[in-house]
Specification:
This protein has about 475 residues and is an alpha/beta fold. Helix content is about 30%, strand content about 25%. Pfam families: T2SSE. Belongs to the GSP E family. This is TadA family conjugal transfer-associated ATPase.
């Protein structure tokens, strides 16, 4: 059994007793008091928001912040998970540690002395989600894993299906959510019941705890797959060859493109597939809120937004990253998702000679993209006319993704940016139905011109058995 200690001044005796009750239920050793004059030893995990975790003579030492931001239950969850993951071959429960070393060492000095050790320990650790989730993550076709209370749902590219196995209790789900968040260096507790984070592997976590989640803890995991899907995998039927040629023409012609669609429609997957076929001698600078893009490209640079700390300092916004990317000699600037005021800096970058850029945006159709861009422009204090002028100069094509009835994610529309008397408009150039038939839209000829396709290409395609009266 593993022994752990807690500073006597960090929690009152009643709180320590409550923690011990929770830890015993989890099969962990109890916490013991440590004299207040005991000096800490080696830094264990650093400053995790309002909980300081230390190593003292081989034991785990937890100091809870004076603000009381962590409830007893949350501290017990975190402690239980840490002890379960990092067992120490030490003697079991010890009532008190006598101070033998009179020399006190400050936390700042300890951190400086042991940074390398801490980093090496972190790199060597392999995170496990448990025997229910791990096999699903290992499956090559799984894109999403959703935990609703005790029940597990999985998407293998064909829609959501309930998994055969489920959790024994909602407490197990809560502990897993807290453990994943702690591994990501994020806080998840009653004071902060919602977390959005990413693991080093690229797996994206979104978790919600009760009472915000009324029916039990919720965990959403988005699983990235490195370059496993191509553009053709996002097409259906006989449209695959044509759409692949369109994507290649857009890349070769250095067209600036927006990929639109709803959540889970395949925007990021298509963007990763497109980036994987970019010329290998081009430098791609990708900017994301949370790193999700995993293309196979030899010269890919990732920039990731960083949230501010509890003091409100240290934050790095997407807008700052876009401005930084311009100075990094990019051949192409990629914005993983436009969702705020960074749209202004992205438009500025694309309008200053950085052609061939790509981005994704949430929208229900190509026709709805202008309204979405206007909403984002308002956040950046851009009026409709100013936004329209910049978007028309910056973007050429819109590629809309949808998830079909069978869960298949596919390219559903192609559109081009147009002008409607000073207002922004996106016209449909092609509709692709679930059978793979392509129906030309009002902007079909403009699409051909932008992609460098001639009338012969159009006639050849429309002679391959597709509808000509669409």
């Amino acid at each position: 059994m593993t022994a752990a200690f807690i500073y006597a001044h960090a929690l009152e005796a009643r709180a320590i007793n409550q923690l011990n009750t929770r830890l015993r239920a989890c099969g962990q050793a109890e916490l013991s008091r440590v004299r207040e004059d005991s000096s800490p030893g080696i830094l264990f995990l650093g400053d995790h928001r309002n909980i300081l975790m230390w190593r003292q003579r081989g034991h785990t030492v937890i100091t809870c912040g004076s603000q009381g931001a962590y409830s007893v239950n949350d501290a017990a969850d975190l402690l239980s998970n840490l002890l379960a993951e990092r067992p120490h071959s030490q003697s079991p429960q010890v009532d008190e540690v006598q101070e033998k070393d009179e020399t006190r060492t400050s936390p700042c000095r300890l951190k400086a002395m042991t940074t390398k050790t801490t980093q090496e320990e972190t790199v060597e650790e392999s995170f496990s989600f448990g025997n229910i989730i791990d096999p699903l993550i290992a499956h090559p076709t799984v894109t999403d894993i959703l935990v609703n209370g005790q029940h597990v749902w999985v998407d293998r590219g064909d829609g959501l299906h309930e998994a055969e196995r489920h959790f024994d209790s909602v407490d197990d789900v809560r502990q897993l959510a807290v453990r994943i968040a702690a591994y990501c260096g994020r806080r998840l507790d009653e004071a902060s019941p919602i977390v959005d984070a990413a693991l080093p592997s690229g797996i994206r976590l979104h978790a919600v705890l009760p009472p915000v989640a009324g029916d039990g803890p919720l965990i959403s995991l988005r699983i990235p797959h490195v370059g496993t899907l191509g553009v053709g995998d996002m097409c259906v039927g006989q449209s695959a060859h044509l759409l692949e040629s369109w994507m290649q023409a857009a890349i070769k012609g250095r067209r600036n493109c927006l990929i639109s669609g709803a959540t889970g429609s395949g925007k990021t997957t298509l963007l990763s597939a497109v980036l994987s076929v970019m010329p290998p001698n081009q430098r791609l600078v990708c900017i994301e809120e949370i790193s999700e893009l995993r293309p196979r490209h030899p010269h890919l640079v990732h920039l990731q937004e960083r949230a501010a700390n509890v003091q409100g300092a240290g934050g790095v916004s997407l807008s700052e990253l876009v401005r930084a990317a311009v100075r990094m000699r990019p051949d192409r600037i990629i914005v993983g998702e436009c969702r705020g005021a960074e749209v202004r800096d992205m438009l500025a970058a694309l309008n200053t000679g950085h052609d061939g850029g790509w981005a994704t945006i949430h929208a229900n159709s190509v026709e709805d993209v202008p309204a979405r861009l206007e909403a984002l422009g308002a956040l950046a204090e851009l009026g409709p006319q100013a936004l329209a002028a910049q978007v028309r100069a910056a973007f050429d094509l819109v590629i809309h993704m949808e998830r079909g009835g069978g869960g298949k994610r596919r390219i559903a529309q192609m559109g081009v940016i147009a002008d409607a008397e000073g207002r922004l408009r996106c016209e449909c150039a092609a509709l692709i139905d679930e059978d793979g038939r392509v129906r030309p839209g009002p902007a079909w000829e403009r699409l051909q011109a932008l992609l460098g396709l001639g009338a012969d290409d159009c006639r050849k395609y429309r002679g391959e058995g597709h509808d000509e009266d669409a």
